[in-house]
Design a protein that fits this description.
InterPro entries: GAF-like_dom_sf, HTH_MetabolicPath_Reg, Tscrpt_reg_IclR_C, Tscrpt_reg_IclR_N, WH-like_DNA-bd_sf, WH_DNA-bd_sf. This protein is about 45% helix and about 20% strand. It has about 250 residues and is α+β, with helices and mostly antiparallel strands.
Length: about 250
């Protein structure tokens, strides 16, 4: 991780952001020893960097487990960069209510140039491993991914779809296209265990006044508890919440 000194650059800043890069590249919270192993920074110096980055809210330290993840400031920067900060702010109270009502995890996914990512999560069970965290890219076969495949502007998702489907058979592609037609009709999608065994999800789209897709709300939890049809109680609840949130952005 050590870089050659450059009079036009600040080495300590490079190292600090390098630590952030290491943590961002992992799909799980990292312990101090893991970060040190990947960064090759001495314990005393790494402690100072982590303490500073945590103080600046670029990283978050879970005091109970002693692990590090990306901090709220990084998330704010990311949302500002993709123009979604207002969406996150307005949707967060609904995530809290969804999680409270269902006792499951609720998340907001938004589009980026490389596919859908999780912009915010609200969990009723902090110990539940859903296989993802804020900033995680979601595959096309996740319920969130299916929403973007069904409703987002085709030109914007063409490259992403081609990459995700590159090893699919013709039959698999045909079945997926049929499924997306049903999602467009019902305005809700489902996925059984797309990331972690026994963990499934259901998603609904969020639209603006111009009927453009803003993002999607997703409910995640143990498979037997997650709705699998639009007629389920939680399925209806998600659909009603989708209409309410979309209404805030002028959708009719």
């Amino acid at each position: 991780m050590e870089k050659e000194k450059n009079p036009a650059m600040i080495g300590s800043l490079q190292i600090g952001l390098g630590i952030v890069d290491i943590i961002a590249s992992q799909e799980h919270p990292m312990k101090f020893t893991e970060i040190q192993e990947k960064s090759n920074i001495t314990k005393s110096n790494l402690y100072k960097y982590l303490n500073t980055l945590t103080h600046l809210e670029l990283l978050y330290r879970d005091k109970q487990h002693g692990t590090y993840t990306l901090g709220s400031k990084i998330i704010s920067y990311g949302m500002a960069a993709i123009g979604q900060q207002d969406l996150v702010t307005k949707v967060t109270p609904f995530l809290q209510e969804i999680s409270r009502f269902t006792s499951l995890t609720a998340l907001l996914a938004v589009w980026t140039h490389s596919g859908p990512v999780i912009a915010n999560i609200w969990s009723a069970n902090n110990g539940l491993n859903i296989g993802a965290q804020i900033g995680t890219h979601l595959p096309i076969l996740s319920s969130s991914g299916k929403v973007f495949a069904a409703f987002h502007e085709p030109l914007l998702i063409e490259e992403w779809k081609n990459t995700e489907m590159q090893n699919w058979s013709v039959e698999d592609k045909q079945l997926f296209e049929e499924e997306t037609k049903g999602i467009k009709k019902r305005q809700i999608s489902f996925a059984k265990e797309p990331l972690v065994p026994y963990i499934s999800s259901a998603s609904v789209p969020l639209f603006n006044y111009n009927n453009d897709l803003l993002g999607c709300l997703t409910l995640v939890g143990f498979s037997p508890l997650v709705p699998q049809t639009s007629e389920d109680e939680y399925g209806q609840y998600l659909l009603n919440t989708s209409k309410e949130v979309s209404g805030i952005f002028g959708y009719k």
